[in-house]
Structures are given as C-alpha cells and as structure tokens.
Amino acid sequence: MFYPITRLRRLRNCETIRAMVRENHLSIDDLIYPLFAIYGRNVKNPVASMPGVFQLSVDNVVKECGEVVHLGLKSVLLFGIPETKDEAASGAYDPDGIVQQAIRAIKKEFPGLYVITDVCLCEYTSHGHCGMISGDTVLNDPTLNYLADTALSHAVAGADMVAPSDMMDGRVGAIRTKLDQHGFSHIPIMAYSAKFASAFYGPFRDVAESAPQFGDRKAYQMDPANGDEAVRETALDIEEGADIVMVKPGLPYLDLVRRIKDEFHYPTAVYNVSGEYSMVKAAALNGWIDEKRIVMEALLGMKRAGADLIITYHAKDAARWMGEKA
C-alpha cells in the first residue's frame, strides 16, 4: 500500500460512507441497567457519589422498570439492600427477601423484562465480606451452599438469570448443581469470571451499603496486575457451567475482554462500574466534557474490545441518545 494509491480518508468523507464501513455497532439490546432495591414504600434515596442512581423501594423499582421498558431496554441487573444484616447473610436467600420481592413485582408488571440477579453475600453480611468468615478469614467452601441457596431463591421468585459476583472458587458449579437439582436447568448463569480487587468500586459500595468492615477483598478478588489468571478463572467458570462470562471493571480491563473473547468465543459481558460512571458524571456536571460523546465512545470501545453485553449505569441515557438518533 503506497500513497497516493491507498487513501484511507476516501471512506471518511461523509457520514453515509462512514456508516457503511463502520466495523462495530452499539445497540440498545447490548445494555443491561443495574437497579438497587431497598425496603420501604415510595423510597427514592439519591446516591451522592453516583448522580442519577438511587436506592429504590420495590414500588419505585417497578416504576423505574416502566421507564426502562419505554426506552427499549430489555434487561436489568438487580441488587438488594436488606433491613438487617447478620453473619449468615440470611437476607440473601430469604424467600421473602428484598431481591425476591422485587423480582416478583417486576415480573408481575413487566413479564417480558429480562431480570438478572446479582448473587453475592456482601450486602447481607454484618461484616461486609462476600462469604462466611472465621476470624479475619473469608471461608471458601462453607460459602458455596449459601450462594447456591441464594441463586435458587432468585430462580424460584422468577429471575431469568443469576449472576454470581463473589469470586469464591467453585461457586458456578455449586449454583449450577443446585439449580439443576430443583428443576431450574433452564436458568442461565452469568459469571463474574474476571472480577478484580479494584479501586473503581467505591461509589457502588455507597449505594449497596456493602463496604467490608475489616480488611479488604484482595484474598478473593483478583490482582489488577494479572491477565493470565483472568483467562484461567474464565476457563474454570466455563467448565463449571457458566453460560456467559464477565470482566469487571470495564475500561481499565478491555485488553482482557479481547483476550477472553478470542480464547473462548463465549458470550462475554463487561461491567462499566460505578467509579467509571461517577468520574464521567462529575466531569460532565463541571462542564469539562461532552457527556454524550464520552459515554457513547466508551461503550463503543467495550463493544470493539469484544463485549457482547455491557452492564452500565449509563444505559438509560444511552438508550435515549440512540433513540434520538433513530
């Protein structure tokens, strides 16, 4: 290829030709919107560190789902904030827990909305860790049955998919076995396969009220320096029965989205996490950036890296913007 025979600018001359040769496309169908359910009625608690994100009582979760459906979004990811916490995380697998109530209410009003549930214990434990503890140690194997019971309770309530985010070894297999044994072999598992011990989760811990009361999560979430380990973690989740694998966070780890997609050719999700969202919102509120262009560029970058699905707090805004363009 030699200039002037090859001129790549020929295919950039106008929007029509740019659209014709565009390699990657972002769709509303790609986006999953997180929601946070809390006890009470007519509750809509704003989260200072996440402008536009709220803790919602079940009635307001349903109202929010109405807006989600109106915008054309197809799926939500549901988190819960219990009234009380204990060492056994009993609110996580309570048949009448906050997530279970929210699932039933959503499916009653919007049966076609695809409800994915986060399966973890950190929001429900008094110590804020993702599993059972002994002293200052988070125990792996004793935690697995609690996670499996939580996933089963979500399926019984009507969840369409469960998404374990705890990073305990073997949890995908334990959940798959429990679901299959109870007649829920049709329920897919979206595994948080490569979830890193990241500084980008800070605002999420505000909204989910899930900060650990001692230590940190580095003994079970992954070291941000490790890429090969992320591939091994993903391989194990696939072997245990994961239907979709995930990389979390998003933007700093897009190299791993690409590696995992190329290695396994599996449906791959990426979580555009709270810290990524809050930085964009803060800069936009200060007038430093063009929020729409920044958000759409970031989401398209995730698609280009290989993501099939994107969990993002920007989902409603992105859906509006895509709707305006249409």
UniProtKB/TrEMBL annotation:
EC main group: lyase
EC number(s) from the headed UniProt entry: 4.2.1.24
Residues that, per the record, bind Zn(2+): C120, C122, C130
CDD domains, alphabetized: ALAD_PBGS
Catalytic reaction annotation: 2 5-aminolevulinate = porphobilinogen + 2 H2O + H(+)
Required co-factors: Zn(2+)
Gene Ontology cellular component annotations, sorted alphabetically: cytosol
Pathway note: Porphyrin-containing compound metabolism; protoporphyrin-IX biosynthesis; coproporphyrinogen-III from 5-aminolevulinate: step 1/4
Residues at the catalytic site: K195 (schiff-base intermediate with substrate), K248 (schiff-base intermediate with substrate)
Subunit structure: Homooctamer.
Cross-referenced PANTHER family: DELTA-AMINOLEVULINIC ACID DEHYDRATASE (PTHR11458)
Protein family per UniProt: Belongs to the ALAD family.
Listed name of the protein: Delta-aminolevulinic acid dehydratase
Organism: Formimonas warabiya
